[in-house]
Amino acid sequence: MTVLASDGAAVALGATRSRDPDIVATIGSTPLVALDRLFPPDRFQVYAKCERFNPGGSIKDRAAKSMIEHAIKAGKLVPGVSTVVESSSGNLGIALAQLCNFYRLDLICVVDPRTTAQNTAIMRAYGAKVEVVDRDPATGEYLPARIARVRALLDSVPDAYWPNQYANEYNARAHHHTMREICEALPGGPDYLFLAAGTTGTLRGCAEYIQEQGLATRVVAVDAVGSVIFGPPEPWERAHRRTIPGHGAAVVPPLLRPHLADRVVKVTDLDCVRGCRRLLAQESILAGGSSGAVISALEGAAEWLEPGATCVAVLPDGGDRYLDTIYSDAWVETRFQESPPDPDHERSEP
Ligand code: PMP
């Protein structure tokens, strides 16, 4: 299927026909790499699905492609006419900015002051408008203020469309492909799939594929201490300040189907930093915060994983977007009042 852009040029929809690969067609088919240095395979085998290889740099390229292409096909978005409005502080905003640029759609991305200058600059480079909102005066939280601004824009901007990543089924459906790719590399599927949960699109899409295919793969969802996704936080969690974006949420996502996670593991921000730095020291992979969360959960799983199990860890993005936080010794010292993990100490001989 093709649609006409404002300049009259035909724009092809990715999943509908074969074509010479353009940039959108390169989304997905990310590499699966063995993490044999970090997890010696004599106990259990771990592979990492490296989502930073998507052209926008994260797993959210898949969700953006799926949501935007479906909305175009359904006639909810018209290239050259419509404006996409979404609330995102990072990866989805960048992924949408790329997709909207490609399909000749305008994008207004509503962010808050925690969004890094680099992420905002990337969105703007793709042509997106970025609006920064402050805390909601009633609750002191950013999320209600962001959603209120999205709703106001939907009322005031002609032909505006909100993908609403937390509730959009096509966010989840994108990850049927993620799991299919994993199964193509590991026929029959791995014994365990470790993934980070935010909107829970990755969890739902992968787990639905597992169910549809009748696979025995068990899903371990990695959430943040203090997050409400899988239930109210324990009293001790309330003191934990979440500063690493990606996994965890302050509201229960409408997409969530909690029974799809066989196990939930909650990790702290410090666990994420340690996981990221060990991954870098041992495997030379510069990964984002939620990847560190998944690695930390896998390290904890050594206690209960059966010998010989095969595990896949989904690494949602790269570490380039976290150089001023996770990979900054000064930030780690200020944030956690402790010295950063010593890579030489962490490194074992290959
Ligand atoms: N990690 C990172 C870095 C992300 O950007 C996201 C998306 N918010 C996630 C994990 C969680 O993925 P999902 O929204 O599919 O649950």
Nutshell version of this structure?
This protein is an alpha/beta fold. It is built from ten helices and twelve strands.
Notes on the structure:
- Its cofactor is pyridoxal 5'-phosphate.
- Homodimer.
- Keywords: Pyridoxal phosphate, Transferase.
- Catalyzes the synthesis of N-((2S)-2-amino-2-carboxyethyl)-L-glutamate (ACEGA) from O-phospho-L-serine and L-glutamate.
- Residues 26-317 form the Tryptophan synthase beta chain-like PALP domain.
- The chain is an alpha/beta fold.
- The protein has 10 helices and 12 strands.
- It has helices spanning 60-73, 91-102, 117-125, 143-156, 169-185, 201-212, 269-283, 289-301, 329-336, 343-346; strands at residues 2-4, 10-12, 32-34, 45-50, 83-87, 106-111, 129-132, 160-161, 192-196, 218-224, 263-267, 310-315.
- The strands form 3 sheets. Strands 3-4-12-9-10-11 form a 6-stranded mixed beta sheet, with helices on both faces.
- α1 (60-73) crosses α2, α1 crosses α5 and α5 (169-185) packs across α6.
- The longest helix is centred in the middle third of the chain and has 17 residues, at 169-185.
- The chain starts with a strand and ends with a helix.
- The model is unreliable at 1-11 and 344-350 (pLDDT under 50).
- The site of 4'-deoxy-4'-aminopyridoxal-5'-phosphate (PMP) has 18 residues, from α6.
